[in-house]
Amino acid sequence: MTHIPSKQTPKEYALNPNPQRIVDDLLPHRVPAHESASAFAPANIALCKYWGKRNEPLKLPLTGSLSVSLGDLGTRMTLRVSDQDRLHINQIEQPPESKAFSRLFSFIDLFRKPGTCLAIESINTIPMSAGLASSASAFAATVHTLNALYDWKLNDSQRSILSRIGSGSASRSVYHGFVEWFPGEQDNGMDSYAESLNVRWPEIRVGILTLSNAEKPIGSSEGMKRTLETSVLYRSWPDQVKQDLPVIREAIYQKDFPLLGKTAEQNAMSMHATMIAAWPPILYWRPESLETLHKVHRLREKGVDVFATMDAGPNVKILFTEESTAVVKEAFPDVRIVAPFSDSESYCNRSGIPF
Question: Domain count of the chain?
Fold first, then answer.
């Protein structure tokens, strides 16, 4: 991990943790170089979870995290210079008063000169606000596309920092494959960004079980804040990550799938335990979520190496390898199976997004 220089001192950022200061540090100019640009960013699933911030405005995490991308599931975004701001998501126009419009253009305002209007076409191939990290791919795709539209030539770490300002998990969606996000120590956040592990594991599979497309009753930011402030179990969460993250990283390097799956599942269950112990309790699970977890456990009892993970939402993701595909399909007929590496190749080549 390298340090990215800043024009402002860490002390200055500590006194005024304004995301605009980071953007101003990193952008060479604010004049569009093209009329339009497009880019793709994948969604990602954390194997070692991100839950809790040490700095809310700058989206600086309390701990590190590690994820795997979801291949061609994510966000493809097109930006065009326009006479007024417009946003279409999956070909549906979003009104200016909508949450999606407000959040995305508030983010874009950090990057553009006043008076520059943009028309946005966003195609999401995953459900929004249902615990499948659609915001991560959306903000990473926004930064990729802005980088191309303005011809900033930002490097991967800089794009990760800027994506993080929109959504913490977006720092990892800058890449395909296995990605680690460093928490950093500096107040200005210039040492908190993600890097690719540069490990390809073609046999890995992620099964997505969309049990609900409904918007989450409690957003991730609110959930993190409540957990941090009220859950006595959260005191042990940094130690849990400190224990799990190096194990998961080494399991990936050694391609030890049982160790990877076991540690990822335990990490996810530990995160949800901290939420349940918050007050009021945060319980994203539905009856279908619990039954799915039990079914995964029953498969393991039969000798099938399959493991579960869950982010902040009711949907369950299943981790397994190619050889277990038939068994998983039989047990979960509605599963959507992603091969993170083979499914990513065309998008990686087309969009220039590194593994």
Answer: 2
Question: Alpha-carbon distance 281 to 51, whole Å?
Answer: 15
Query: Do residues 173 and 260 both lie within one domain?
Result: no
Note whether 222 and 195 are same-domain residues.
no
Half-sphere exposure of 291 (CA within 13 A, CB side): 7
Look at residues 178, 201, 224 and tell me which one is the last residue of a structural domain. Answer: 201
| Whole-structure pTM value | 0.91
Residue range(s) defining the domain that contains residue 299: 204-338
Q: What is the pLDDT of residues 272-331, one digit of tens each?
A: 999 999 999 999 999 999 999 999 999 999 999 999 999 998 999 999 999 999 999 999
Same domain, 265 and 248: yes
| Interval 27-60: pLDDT, tens | 999 999 999 999 999 999 999 999 999 999 999 9
Nearest to 23 by CA among 145, 164, 117, 174: 164
Could you give the strand order of the β-sheet that contains 336-338, starting from the edge strand earlier in sequence? 307-309, 316-321, 204-209, 336-338
Under 8 Å between Cβ of 324 and 304: yes
CATH assignment at residue 187: 3.30.230.10
**What type of residue sits at position 226?**
R
DSSP, res 98:
S
Residue 144 shares a structural domain with residue 45: yes
Tell me, what amino acid is at 181?
Answer: W
